[in-house]
Every structure is written in C-alpha cells, then in structure tokens.
Amino acid sequence: MRPREEIRAAIAAACAARGWPVEEIAVERPKDPAHGDWATPVALALARPLKRPPREIGEALVETLELDPDRYSAVEVAGPGFVNVRLSPAYLREAVARILADPAGFLHSDRLAGRSINVEFVSSNPTGPLHVGHARNAALGDAIAALYEAQGADVDREYYFNDAGRQMDILGASIHARYRQLWEPDYPFPEEGYRGAYIRDLAEEVRETEGERFRDVEPEACLEFFRRFAGERMTASIKSDLERFRVAFDRWFNESSLYADGSLEKTLEDLREAGAIYEKDDAVWLRASAYGDTEDRVLVKSTGMPTYLLPDIAYHRDKHERGYDRAVDVWGADHHSYQVRMQAALKALGYPPRWLETIIYQQVSLIEDGQEVRLSTRRNRMVTLRELMDDIGVDVTRYFLLMRKGDTHMTFDLDLAREQSEENPVYYVQYAHARIAGVFTKLERPEFDPCASEALPAPGIFARLVEDREIELMRTLEDLPDVIADAAESLEPHRLTDALETLARRFHLWYHHHRFLVEDEDLARARLALARATQRALAETLAILGVSAPESM
Questions:
Q1: Are 497 and 503 a contacting pair, CB within 8 Å?
Q2: How far apart are CA 20 and CA 12, in angstroms?
Q3: Cα–Cα dist 287/295, whole Å
Q4: C-alpha closest to that of 238 among 386, 19, 49
C-alpha cells in the first residue's frame, strides 16, 4: 500500500475508534516540504461537528494514529490543526532498491487493471498537413493513453477521420483548380479553397499520373475523383507524420463508414425510442435542453442532410457498443461548447455520466526571435508538425508540448527549443540520464554497478545514504508513483514534466556536491545504486511522455 492510502486508512481507523464522524479524508502534499511528506486537514473538517478546536482534535488524532515507525519518522500537529506526516529515511531508501529491482513495477500500478479505455485524439480533417496545434493534441492524447496504461488499463488509441464532410469537397475542388491552372493560369480558384503549397504538389501529382484527363472537365464531373485522391494522399501523409512522432494508433475510423453501415439511422432509432428527438420545421431535433444543454439541437436538416452532431453521436454510440468502460476525446478549444451537447446526447442514450471524458486543449503560439509566428491553414501560413520535427526533433517537440496544462494557452519558444544547453528543459532532463550513463561507462569496477548482476546491494549498504541531498533525491523518487497516478487521474501529463525537472535538478545538485567513486566501497556502492535508480526512474517516466532517454549527449 502506498503511503497516502496507508495514512488515509490509519486516519479512518483512528476516527472510527473515537466515534468521530468522517466521510472524506483528504491526504495531500504540503506546499512547504519542511512540513513533511503528507498532511491532512481532517481535524479542521471535524471541528464543527465535534464542537472542539481543530488543533485539540489533531493532537488527539496523533495519539490514536497507528503508523509503522519504521516507515514514518514523525507525526505532528502544525498550524491551526493540520496533521503532518514524515516518511522515514529507511523507507525512502527502500524506493531505491525497488526501482533497481523493477522500475516499472514500482512506478506503475494496477489500479485500472481490467478496465478498457478508448482514447481518441488528433482526428484532424484530412484536408492539410498536421500543424503545431494538431501536434499538441497528438502529444497530449498519446501521453494520456500511456498514463492509463501505466495504471494497468487496456487502452486503444483511435483516430477519427472526418472524411464525409463538406471540407473534403472544398479540398478536392482546390486541387482540381490548381490542376487546371497548370494549363490555364487564370482558372478561378474557389474562394474558400485551401491555398497551401501542398495543394500545388497534389495537383502536379495528378498531372503526372492522369495526364490531361481532367484538363477540360468541369469540377462537378470530376469532384469525386479529386476528393478521393486528396483523401488518400492526405491520410497517408498524416499517418506518416504521426508514426514519426511516435504515435501508434490501434484503429483508424472513417466517418464515411457510419453512413455506409446504417449507424446514423440506428442512432436516430435509439434516440427516438428514448423519447429524445422530435420533428419541427421539417427537421429532426434532439431534446438536448432536457439533458443539460442550453437549447435543443438539430440532428437532421429540413433538406434531409444530417448535421455534424448526428454522425458524432453515432460514432460515440459505436464506441460504447464496442464495450469500452470509458472513452476519452481530446478536442481543440473551438469544441468547448460542443462538450455539453455531446454529453446531453449520450445522457439521452442512457450512458453513464462519466463514460465520456472530454479534454479541451488551448492553442499554441510559436515565438521566434521574440515575435509570434502567425498561423493560418487556409492561407498557407502555418508551421507543420513535419517542419517542427525537422527543426528541433521529436523529443523536444513532444516534451515542450506537454510542459503546460492542456487547457492553458501555450507559448512555444522555438529559440529555447533549439538550445543545446541546460536552459532547455528537455535537454536538462535528458542530460541527467546521459550523465549517469557516463558515470557507469567510465566505471573501472563493474561489480559496483547494481545492474551488472542479479544481486542487489545488501540492504545495509543503502543505510549509507544519509546526506541531505541524498534524502531529497530519494524522497523525489519515492513520490514519483503518486505523481504518475495523480497525472492519470486528472489527465494532466504536464505533472510528469514538472516531476522530471525536479528529479533532474536534485540529481544534478547531488552530483555536483558529492563524489560517487570514493574509497569507502560501501558508500560508493550506495551512491552508484542511487544514481542507477534515478536513471531508471528518468527513463521510465520519459517513456510515458514518448520521449527518449539518451545514453550520451
């Protein structure tokens, strides 16, 4: 049992023993580490029902609390009545041995074992290259999926191709116009058309493969060809970029399949049976206002054409029928209001309230030479994911995009991202891993490497780790499983970048102030073991973010 759960259970037992009414027991990390490793405000919560001063309640609680003294070195009341708990150095040292023995086993958990989760992300219309906004979606969604996997869940990563909408018609018309302009420079270009250089490239490809076949053909007569051609090429391009970005999807779902297999009609029938739709003005409406939305929503227009909402509902119905215990969607900020109507639709279908979790991420502003880089997909003013990877690499791109909470606007400093120095956060973290690798590369006593043999150092050797910086480093290692679990619970991968930078900083400080290869062999073994454990923890946590852990830099 992790310390937080153990402390919570001990508090519950102590309160029950005294007959104190307690429902929720918060166990939190103190803002100031000097106050201990864990703290609970339960005494403050009990003050009103018990009609006693919270500090007095806290002192009584400490007297009753039963915690293993080998694991907990201090339990004390502070301030108005907070109960602070400090882990013992001996317990912190256990983390070193456990990481060396099984880093994934220590850092991960089985809290979600047996749970099936679908994480759908990126899902960009195949109308253009992936840009920096899509890159943030990709990094965020993939890290969320990895966090779930680190908690034991069975996760499927899914991409939803919007290949049935009007945007695909506009894309096809754009390529057709550029194709015609190869012979007729003044041929009119669609007002809403896509103007990127990739449109010209695709038009050139059509000429190479089809020659003059469509030279004198009007758009309406050949739109289906250009639409299909564009979709195939852009889909292949998107898949290639994501593969390079280390995002491996388990399923690629085409919106068009929902039209082909009758899913839209089945969805309407389910909603009709639930009494959740009605007809007005020759249109079909969802009673969304009855399920938490601000107003009812049109599902089928008076023309008989479905709105965007109907296939989206059908798609989530399909996910639910596939048996997932939970679905997570990662959406851009422009979908913020869309959450409510989707939740209303799923509520109408009778799905559990938290079955669908929507993550909204904000836009990314690129800064170069102190100036913002202006972006526009239609006008061909954008920085693509491919360009970012070419410029700064996959590791830096992924890490930078995960450094901030998803629902906050992000400023991406390209100049900082290019830095090969400790000013660059990902370089700083990776350098800690590489620096440790360098120590063992130069090690003249390979038997001192705790990973060189199956036998770990004797427990007594770890007792030599007594310096303040060693204790702080071990405390950071011991805390990492909770950081990962909390990040999975809150769907906030940025918590891992914060933890990685803290771990790297504490390692670098320790490295600068203490020698590893000292004459005292037991102390040397202990310090090398701590270094190895730190390296393994860095690598395992970076892997969740999809970032590599280099052996040299």
A1: no
A2: 9
A3: 8
A4: 386
The mean predicted confidence, pLDDT, of the chain is 94
- Cα(469)–Cα(455) distance, integer angstroms: 26
Which tokens sit at 277?
């739709």
- % residues pLDDT > 90 (the chain): 87
pLDDT digits (tens, 9 = 90+) for 181-235: 999 999 999 999 998 899 999 999 999 999 999 999 988 999 999 999 999 999 9
Single-letter amino acid code for the residue at 220: E
Q: Tell me, which fold does domain 421-544 have in CATH?
A: Isoleucyl-tRNA Synthetase; Domain 1 (1.10.730)
Q: How confident is the model at residue 165 (pLDDT cuts 50, 70, 90)?
A: confident
**Domain-wise residue ranges, the chain:** 3-87, 166-244, 421-544
* Whole-prediction pTM: 0.93
Q: Which residue has the tokens 């201090």?
A: 74
Cβ atoms within 10 Å, residue 108: 20
Q: Per DSSP, what are the bridge partners of residue 297? A: 286
Could you confirm whether domain 3-87 is CATH 3.30.160.250?
no
Which two structure tokens, joined as six digits, stand for 421? 């120095």
Is the pLDDT at 553 greater than 60? The verdict is: yes
